[in-house]
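Lecture notes, part 5. Sequence design as translation. It can be helpful to think of inverse folding as translation between two languages: the language of shapes and the language of residues. The source text, in structure tokens, appears below.
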């Protein structure tokens, strides 16, 4: 018999009754029933109930064990009475009568329980992550993640892609976030960077003649943390293909992602219809470039109904260039109580509020419009709004105005809140959409032109498009949204050096700077680069959705906290003076 176990804690069943066995694992729970001890023994695979009474040679030693001790049990398998069978356990038909015990690893008093799913402060959970990971739910999340990664690999290989690894220590590259810099000991004063993504390398792989590449790639970005984003590192399914257009990438990616969600989504419906939505339409209809399509509400522009109206706030606002009024339809939201609640929601988001109109049955039995806006703009305009929005008695509409960029995000959150409150948002499903035609450029707070997304994307229209207004240029850039999250981002790449130089010049990067920062890729493009494109899918976020978790740290084995600290390993830490001298670095004290 093996030194530690003849079976795992999930193996035994009624067919093993009478057999001598050896099990090893953690003491999950101890129950003393007055002269009879019951111990739930847990390992990676499951739980087996161990029993000992006063006649057992192991009884005296078993009385000493405590939760999370690691022990080895020798015993005999016994069948449970029919009334005592536990259908929730794979081993629920049997129990092991203990005849011998060996303590393999005693445990100190626990700083947090493992048995049960008690909600403990995140600081404690991350400091003792090895204990946190023993809990059933988190253990299940990690196994889900492992199986998702395995499935992704199998699906990519089956689709004709080849897996290649790219460097972890490389040069700095603008990917929209701050780099993590690594000082060079051999080249004092110079720094490597951890890759924000394998972007340049995967393009170089295409130039080198490999047709379909993928990688489960670690990426490093010095970002501010969010519930759906790790502040330091994350993993993505990285993909690149040669001789493709946008639709070819979509056709390659959809079976992989859809199949993955069908495999691991449980009883949740996975919609196969993935619409293409232009970025400008997504922002108009949903107030977000990662819309949650489970909510059917679409916002609309209703500016003409308020222009020159008796509602002075909107009427005067519309006299300014670039302003508009948008409506959020709210089917079945036609009560003053609900409207006031949504108005308070907007105020909590930092806006003065939302105007609203709701339609109800009047005293004469006919439908009438109610609310402060209705009184100000009159029945003719309110009826025109109702008809445009397709609303009726018992429905409402909310209104926001100004320059779209000042209220779109809040409008999007209000749309989501209205959908949830009114029960319009479909549950237990996954709805996807490709967001396409992203703007190539945007302006910062000072009016400076910069890239709005991936700087390596091909502008739609090529060089000719770059000769006009940069803010009207669209890129062959696309994202995949699912249930309000961005899961995939990608683009058709700019593989023509002259177009690349022009694109960067518009964003304030002279040719010399481009040559310096991206010399390897520019050099490669001069020696025959194929048209190519691809994307990257965020594995952490995919698993978060599949696990039905709201916080990405629940699906990462050893995550950082909100302040980008590793509480278990003590990172970041101060370097020693010897390390600093070797790297020829000096730390400037914080003021």
């Amino acid at each position: 018999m093996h030194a530690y176990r003849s079976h795992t804690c999930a193996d035994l069943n009624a067919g093993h009754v009478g057999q001598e066995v050896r099990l090893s694992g953690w003491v999950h729970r101890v129950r003393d029933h007055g002269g009879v001890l019951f111990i739930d023994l847990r390992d990676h695979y499951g739980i087996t109930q161990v029993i000992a009474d006063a006649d057992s040679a192991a009884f005296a030693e078993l009385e000493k064990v405590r939760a999370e001790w690691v022990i080895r049990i020798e015993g005999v398998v016994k069948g449970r009475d029919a009334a005592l069978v536990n259908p929730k356990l794979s081993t629920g038909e049997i129990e092991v009568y203990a005849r011998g015990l060996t303590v393999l690893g005693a445990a100190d008093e626990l700083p947090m329980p493992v048995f049960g799913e008690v909600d403990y402060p995140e600081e404690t959970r991350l400091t003792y992550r090895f204990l946190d990971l023993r809990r059933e739910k988190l253990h299940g999340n990690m196994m889900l993640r492992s199986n998702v990664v395995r499935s992704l690999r199998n699906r990519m290989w089956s689709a004709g892609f080849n897996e290649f690894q790219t460097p972890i220590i490389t040069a700095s590259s603008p990917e929209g976030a701050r780099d993590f810099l690594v000082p060079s000991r051999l080249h004092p004063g110079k720094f490597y960077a951890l890759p924000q993504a394998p972007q340049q390398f995967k393009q170089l792989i295409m130039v080198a003649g490999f047709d379909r590449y993928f990688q489960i790639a670690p990426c490093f970005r010095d970002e501010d943390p969010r519930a759906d984003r790790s502040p330091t590192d994350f993993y993505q399914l990285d993909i690149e293909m040669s001789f493709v257009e946008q639709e070819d990438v979509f056709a390659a990616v959809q079976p992989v992602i859809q199949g993955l969600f069908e495999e691991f989504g449980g009883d949740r419906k996975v919609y196969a219809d993935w619409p293409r939505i232009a970025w400008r339409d997504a922002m108009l209809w949903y107030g977000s470039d990662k819309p949650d399509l489970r909510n059917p509400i679409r916002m609309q522009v209703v500016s003409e109904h308020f222009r020159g109206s008796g509602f002075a706030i909107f009427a005067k606002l519309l006299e300014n260039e670039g302003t508009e009024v948008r409506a959020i339809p709210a089917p079945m939201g036609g009560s003053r109580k609900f409207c006031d609640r949504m108005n308070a929601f907007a105020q909590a988001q930092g806006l003065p509020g939302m105007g609203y109109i709701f339609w109800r049955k009047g005293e004469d039995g006919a439908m009438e419009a109610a609310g402060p806006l209705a009184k100000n703009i009159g029945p003719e305009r309110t009826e025109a709004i109702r008809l445009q929005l397709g609303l009726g008695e018992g429905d409402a509409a909310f209104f926001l105005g100004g320059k779209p960029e000042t209220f779109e995000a809040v409008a999007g959150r209000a749309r989501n809140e209205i959908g949830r409150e009114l029960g319009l948002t479909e549950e237990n499903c996954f709805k996807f959409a490709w967001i396409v035609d992203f703007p190539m450029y945007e302006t910062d707070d000072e009016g400076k032109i910069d890239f709005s997304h991936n700087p390596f994307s091909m502008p739609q229209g090529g060089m000719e498009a770059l000769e006009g207004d940069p803010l009207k240029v669209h890129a062959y850039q696309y994202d995949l949204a699912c249930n309000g999250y961005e899961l995939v981002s990608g683009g058709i790449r700019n593989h023509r050096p002259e177009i690349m130089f022009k694109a960067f010049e518009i964003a304030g990067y002279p040719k010399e700077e481009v040559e310096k920062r991206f010399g390897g890729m520019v050099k490669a493009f001069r020696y025959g680069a194929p048209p190519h494109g691809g994307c990257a899918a965020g594995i952490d976020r995919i698993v978060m959705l599949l696990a039905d978790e709201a916080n990405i740290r629940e699906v990462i084995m050893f995550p950082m906290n909100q302040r980008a600290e590793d509480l278990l390993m003590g990172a970041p830490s101060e370097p020693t003076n010897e390390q600093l001298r070797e790297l020829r670095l000096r730390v400037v004290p914080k003021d």
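The translated text above is only one of many valid answers, since several sequences can fold into similar shapes. The longest strand covers residues 20-32.
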